[in-house]
Amino acid sequence: MTSLIKVWELPGGIHPPEHKDQSLQLPLGRVPLPPVLVIPLNQHMGTPAQPVVQVGERVLAGQLIGAADGTFSANTHASTSGTVIAIEERAIPHPSGMNSESVVIEPDGKDEWIELTPCEDYRSLDRLTLLDKIRAAGVAGLGGAGFPTAVKLAPKSTQVIDTLILNGAECEPYITADDMLMQVRAAELVAGTLLLSHILHHPKNLLIGIEDNKPKAIAAVKAAVAGAAVTDPEAANIQVVVFPTKYPSGGAKQLTQILTGREIPSGHHSADIGVICVNVGTAVAAWRAVRFGEPLVSRVTTMVGDALATQRNVDVLLGTPISYLLTQHGFNANNASRVVMGGPMMGFTLLDLAAPVIKTTNCILAPSKQELPEPTPAQACIRCGICAEVCPASLLPQQLFWYAQAEDFDRLESHNLFDCIECGACSYVCPSTIPLVQYYRAAKGSIRLHEIEKEKSDRSRQRFEFRQERIAKEEAEKEAKRVARQKAAEEAKKKLAEKAAETAAAPVSSADPISAAAVKVSATQATPDEQKAKLERLVAAAKNTLEFQQKPLVPNKTNPVISEEQLVKQQVRIKQAELKLAEAEQKLADFITGLGTTPAAAASAAAAPIAAEPAVDMNDPVAAAIARAQAKLTMSPEDKARANLESLRGRLAKAEEKVAAAKADGSANLDALQQGAEKLQQKIAEALAELSALGIEDKPAPVAAPATEPAAPEPVSAEQSAAQAAIEKAKAKAAALANMSDDEKRAEQIQSLQTRLTKARERLAKAEAENDANIEAFRAGVTKLEEKLQELA
Amino acid sequence: MALLNITSPHTHGANRTGRLMRLVVYATIPGIVALTHFFGIGVLINVLLASLSCIAFEALVMKLRARPIMFYLRDCSALVTGVLIGVSLPPYCPWWLVISASFVAIVLAKQLYGGMGFNPFNPAMVAYVLLLISFPVQMTQWATPLPMLADGQTAPSLVAALDKIFFSIPIDGYSSATVLDVMKQNSGLTLDDLYQQQPVFVEGRWAGAGWEWVNIAFLLGGIYLLYKKVFTWHAPISMLLALVVMSALFYDSGSSNSGGSPTYHLLSGATMLGAFFIVTDPVSSAVSTRGRIVYGALIGVLIYVIRAWGTSYPDGVGFAVLLMNFAAPFIDYYTTPRTYGHKKPRRATDASTQDGGH
Hints:
Chain A is α/β, with parallel strands linked by helices and 793 residues long. Helix content of chain A is 49%, strand content 10%.
């Protein structure tokens, strides 16, 4: 029985005022039936249950009203008999203050039960049947987490369980629900322990861990164990382990450490180290589920806090609104600082008092304003390290706080943020009253969100890359097809040209632009047969597309679920394909009906160029080309020259603008632009000369060197301007040279120097022949170039 | 009734930063009493002047930063800095020395870094060291301790002290070499001879007249703080142990090369003040318990190194603490504790997802 098991030391921990006496003065009480019961469908950890009753249906106590949705879920039962008056979203006790689907029952006061199937000897049943019974009864962890008990009691075959721990630590201040339960239901607790032991293949160690501040409970449980040992030899194995009171020894990880010295590895379950830890209340519920077939419809809850007139433990039906419970206990709303579900260390503030009692409601704490005043404003962290001393997980809370403020997620991870159990010991001792746990919760939330988003973006990146690859492949295929088509077209053109040459050899002369244009146009136009074939192909392709789009969507690896959106998209694609098909068919039909008219018109246009002019259809390329050619032909040479001059002037003005802009920007293209401008000037001069040859004086004098180009001399002679151009060219080259490799540069330079040298020599010879005034300059240039070339070579 | 969404924990311990700081101030009282006893009223004037100016500078900066002044003054950290400056500076030093020390500590070393909790260096030590380097003469003129005064001579009166501090009117024979100076300048004498010849040792019992009692007084204050759990034993005890180990290793059986006995080192200079009031400053020290052991030990070693082998400064507490303030993040990196459920400590920069993650 009680044995000398070693109790290990819990690192850190705190000793907050216990406040446990006030709720233990009165015996376990009951409250009258509330006018309405609100039974949420997710009172447990995991998937919410699915409602299996209808509004208006009469239900009996213990009747299933919400069926577990999958393994990781729990059944929900009616707590008393009555009528279902609504199945709707109602406030539930949750830190976020969220609503959840709940079955609302109006009790009829009869408390009629469904027929229960008791079981006298559970040892005669196999374990799976026992687990089924527990699952059917909707038993979930009553300690606070609400973990489905049947899941917990079915460890993997690789997990060999050698220790079963019954958690009666109840380390949080104020809460006495488990204490009371152990006092009044000690025998059931022992029976439950033996039941769980049976289900878990009789682990070697059966430990009931109780903090030493619960002497009555310890005595009761010890007595019960002794009593059970008389009839059941296995009960003698149960050890009631009493250990020093210290918060948070009741955490599953901490209790495991205290009783076994083993730590649950980070990110693992306790079953991985052979330990299963179950709350004492859960064990009793499991026992009642098996022994009496009784579903979990009530629990022991502590009603405590100075804002209540009566402080005690009550056995309360699940679904009882908390506001009703508070009223029953003389709640003084004016003096209450808040209402908390759970204890002062880890409980959460209830945002809506209409929320009901659920399976995890171990305590309703209604403190007065003096008892738990509003938190004082936080001061700066002085890194005193007291938080690190009390942390049961041996974290460095002040560092976590630092990085949480900075949102440095990497550092938070490396400081093991996710091993924080949020017990609140650090916040409790913080001399600067920093709400540390709040920072950790927020940081955990952001990290989880961050990870989800990262996963999402990874997935979409993969999708994107895949798509790019596909598009590239399609493009390559298209390009290949295009090249093939081009070849075919060229061949056809050649053939056509040959044909045309044969048929119209005599009338077509190169001087006649009209007929040349006509030939050109008709050459690019395919023969009617070819056109028809093309349109037919288009129709076929459109049909293919439509068929492909009409295929039903099939889920695959990258896209496991077909979403509504995808279906809509497919519909759109099908519509598009249909439209395309219709268009293609229309085109084909038009072509077939209009076959023969178009070529005929073209032929007539070609035959009677001038007469047909007013009737030219500008949409017809043949006709348009003919019209353009005609316009050119009808122009007098004078007009032509004028037009030419005008356009040249326009171009020059533009070029000069560009030069100015380039100068302003210091662009590298300056030289090239200047050269262009000069060339245009030359052309203008030529055009003027042409005009004057035609006997016409153009009023504006030829524009001299652009004003924006002071360096350039007036084009005195053609040679000089050409020399200027050469110099500019060399400059441009030098700029281009900057980008080349050294060897390349040298080769390039040598080559250019050589060409320049030859040119310069030619110039010199010419100048010598003509006795040019600049002969000396030319000579100097040649010698310079020769020197340079030698330098490089 | 408005239900506030206050998150857990809803309850809070009685500990407050202001309370911790006040306890530190109380714990300096034995030391201040001893200093005043041996060196006269100048000590009290220093402490008063430094405390007031520190609080004034703090209030000024808070005003400039548009922060609630009283909220920040209530944490008493400026008062602690002021008191520590007061006891570190030599009594009867010029008033401007004290004011500039306060300015350096509060404005430069603390508020410019972001104020309370953000200063990488101990403000009082920054002030002390900066002034020691800038004004070596004024900073090393320590008053003669009471036992060494000539017969009939007493500690300076309040008027003489104020004259000296505010108007630089000299006091005859008020200063003398400290024990550390004597030890530092010793060459050729064995420790035994030194203890017999030098009046500063002759008048003392273990480590020099006056100073040994001052250190014992600060030790008492430190024990009080340990008892009150203002800090843990790790940093101060490891610093003292390191100092003992170093002085024992290089004791050289009391020859003329000896750096002094462990007792001498424990009870001279600023050893106890440093161990319990400077090294324990949480803001600028390492964070984990292991880290604080390393941090304290390294300071202890450095103090001995500077005292025994340094060339110009007799005491090394200020320098040693500042150097280790520098090293604190580095120490933190290598001294992270092993978290529950982890096989070994994780480095502060190890961002890999370990043990299955979450």
